[in-house]
Amino acid sequence: MAESDQPSEHDDSGPVPFMQRVLDNPFLLLFLGVTMPAVLYIIWGVMEIANIPIAK
Amino acid sequence: MAANTAFRTCPDTGLKVHLPAQALIKANAVAAVVFLLVGGVLGLLVALTRSELDFLPALPAESFYAVLTAHGMDVLLFWIVFFEMAVLYFASAILLNCRLAAPWLAWVGFVLMLVGAIMANVAVIQGESSVMFTSYVPMKAAPHFYLALILFAVGALIGVGVFFATLVIAREERTYEGSVPLVTFGAVTAAIIAVFTLASGAIILIPTFLWSLGYIAHIDSMTYKLVWWAMGHSSQQINVSAHVAVWYAIAAIVLGAKPLSEKVSRSAFLLYILFLQLASAHHLLVEPGVSSEWKIFNTSYAIYLAVLGSLIHGMSVPGAIEAAQRGKGYTRGVFEWLTKAPWGNPAFSGMALSLVMFGFLGGISGVVMGTEQINLIMHNTLYVPGHFHGTVVAGTTLAFMAITYLVVPLIFQREILFPKMAQWQPYVFGLGVAGISLFMMGAGTLGVARRHWDSNFSDATLTFEYPAAAFLMLGLNGLFAIMAAVGGAMYVVVVVGSILFGKRREGAGEPAQQPAEPPAGAAVGSYGNAGTLHLPGTYVLVGVFFVAFVLYYFVNWKYLSEVWPLS
Amino acid sequence: MAIAPPERRLWWKEPLDKAEIIWITIAFLWGVVMFLAMIYWHIVGEQNLSNEAYRIDPEVFAAKAEEMTEKYTVREEGDTGIPVVHPPPGSDVYLISRLWEWWPILELEKDQSYRLHLSSMDWQHGFSLQPTNINVQVHPNYDLVMTIKPNEAGTFSVVCNEFCGIGHHTMVGRIYVTER
Question: Is residue B212 in a domain?
Fold first, then answer.
């Protein structure tokens, strides 16, 4: 998270910042919120379970 | 539904209330409270049985395991998810001054959930499905047990879909300016996690259902557990997001508090969206065959980034309250804002207790227990339910109870009946739950197993005795469970009484003449907070919390270092 | 207010209070510390669960346990005559979990290492070593291997702490640890 900000300048004009646009887009967030755990938790985990060797 | 255009204006908040949405909020809230009542009574029976106190009644073994199964489903799933549906409809249609998308579809979802929830209870009562909430394979329940859960999940998924569709409508019809309110954003977070949760549930429960019917020969127990917990644990992460949103909502409605920083609070929710669900790995830390890399990465929510989100909320919620109170002139000393807070308002006191106990009891214990190695001395002991009664009961349930005291006048348009009882309710329930959580964790630290009917092992071939202190903990847990049950009963009496017999409030049922202005943004204080706010009370509270967290964390590494070396 | 849209259109540009930045930094660093602590413990700590595991047929596992039991039984105990097995230090030790017993009883020597194999014949069980309080999940069809080194002598119990049906609360096993 970038915390660099100009001091108390209350400029409300201009384009909407990138991160604000991301946070205002529920479907992009939905995509991220489903993909992250699906890949990092489920897919990675199932791959590990599938790779457990057979006992000698 | 011709009623799609019917709105009324809330006299208290100026919000435009879509009547079909209001009806759905009512239905879901009522269903939630019914399952809380049923699940709560069952929970009391479980705690009494486990107390091992002779003067308290106890269930026979067979009913104990059935009751425990139903208790888990009724409160962990049904009470919570029904209430969350109400929260989602409120945070979308009501807060965005918008009509709810396809109310008929939301009703279909509601009916599916209701059928599923009732069917699951019936399956357990019939006795062939005492498999616990987790229903780990290869233990098998009756097919309609799994079918019931699938129906419930599909119904809830429909409700979440209606929520997202309402967001789209609100944006297209420009019912609000700029970004959605923070509370709605918290609800978006909860809804996103709900999609992952319910989809995971469907993915694993559908094959399990087929297996119980005999169409599939084998379900791998490890894979089942991995995917099941993507539902089981994430469903509790819906709660976290929802109850944090509720904290912000109560602080705003009761005190007019505004977020210290929209940016910080929303970023904290983003951390939830991205990382919170990884913590499903907490349940697989002592399983065979998954690597430590997977365990450490997932159990730590990717380097504790979701915990960072919680820690941020842990400062910004009390900070918002302190700022609002100081704005009202409670500026003396470090804590006048806190001592002069509306402690007699159950919505506020319930929220405050929920915040504190979620942090100190549920939060800290969850992170400690979710440490890969420390889990070895806690897995499947009573420490686990001790932890999640701190999160789900002290945190979520208390927060949901607190906001009910606002929902009844605003949505049901009834005065609270028995205001004195309502005033005491959060304290009685909160103290009871704090006891439950602490003493179960205490017993768990001493090794006592969860989901276990007989802590004396009287029928075992080989005998074993837990230390005497463990029985003290179990007994105290039983007594505090009685107190929590009293607090829960007070809640049900107040809520049901108010809905049925409470005095109707002014302006009830009057259709709005014209769409009201959105509530004025309560322009207290200036924009942003840099250099304008000094919140010493919040800094002290956060400091105390942090010290407690760090100390308790390292104490548990010390405990771990004393057990048998293993590698 | 949190129930109304942000007051400012470009709220992302809101300046932050210094205290907030400090807290976020502390909280982030604490997360890093807790993350590294788990890795650190893998390097220097003595209590790490090995992730060695194999797929195994319950009958194959039972055969291995029975072979060990036949070789090293020293006596029998309990009404049902459960064998007490004293395997040599360093060897592979098999503990069967099934409805509702841990079989056989093990007798180990203090400060010696053993490769303990855990697997279930039927449903999932929970290996809960008391009063030491070590808890490991046991699955059917999986053989979980961990090297244990008892650091105290005495009588230890293995309680099942994963619900496994109506006899769950009677499922108690035993491990003796003798002085060398």
Answer: yes
* SS3 letters across B286-311: CCCCCCHHHHHHHHCHHHHHHHHHHH
pTM: 0.94
Here the CATH number for the domain that contains residue B193 is 1.20.210.10
User: Residue type at B248?
Assistant: Y
User: Would you say B306 and B276 are in contact if contact means Cβ atoms under 8 Å apart?
Assistant: yes
Q: Is residue B185 a contact partner of residue B152, using CB atoms and an 8 Å limit? A: no
- Is there a contact between B282 and B369 (Cβ–Cβ < 8 Å)? yes
Nearest alpha carbon to residue B433 among B360, B369, B367? B360
Residue A5 to chain B, least CA–CA distance (Å) = 10
Residues paired with residue B441 on neighbouring β-strands, in sequence order: none
Q: Rounded to whole angstroms, how far apart are CA atoms B270 and C20?
A: 17
Q: In this structure, is residue B221 part of a structural domain?
A: yes
Cα–Cα distance for residue pair B332/B340, rounded to 1 Å: 10
Within 8 A of A45 by CB-CB distance, chain C residues are none
Q: What domain count does chain B have?
A: 1
> Between chain A and chain B, how many beta carbons pairs sit less than 8 Å apart?
96
Query: What confidence tier does B10 reach under pLDDT thresholds 50, 70, 90?
Result: confident
Q: How many residues does chain A have?
A: 56
- Asked if C131 and C172 touch (Cβ cutoff 8 Å), the reply is no
Six token digits for residue B387: 């932890």
C44-90 pLDDT tens trace: 999 999 989 999 999 999 999 999 999 999 999 978 899 999 999 99
d(CA B153, CA B112) in angstroms, rounded, equals: 9
Sequence-distant (6+) residues with CB within 8 A of B493 are B418, B421
User: B118 is in which domain, residue-wise?
Assistant: 19-255
Could you give the 3-state DSSP secondary structure of residue B8?
Answer: strand
**Looking up tokens 């590698």, which residue turns up?**
B567
Right CATH for C52-178 from 3.40.190.10, 2.60.40.420, 2.102.10.10, 2.40.50.140: 2.60.40.420
B212: amino acid identity, one letter: S
- Asked whether the predicted pLDDT for residue B384 surpasses 90, the reply is yes
Give yes or no for A49 touching B (CB within 8 A): yes
The subunits that touch chain B, with at least 3 C-beta pairs less than 8 Å apart, are: A, C
Q: Is residue B13 part of a domain?
A: no
Q: Is C18 on the interface with A (CB under 8 A)?
A: no
Residue B378 forms part of a structural domain: no
Q: Is the peptide bond before B511 cis (omega within 30 degrees of 0)?
A: no
CB contacts, 8 Å: A1 with chain C: 24
| Residue C38, SS3 per DSSP | helix
Domain boundaries, chain C: 15-44, 52-178
CA distance B100 to B33: 23
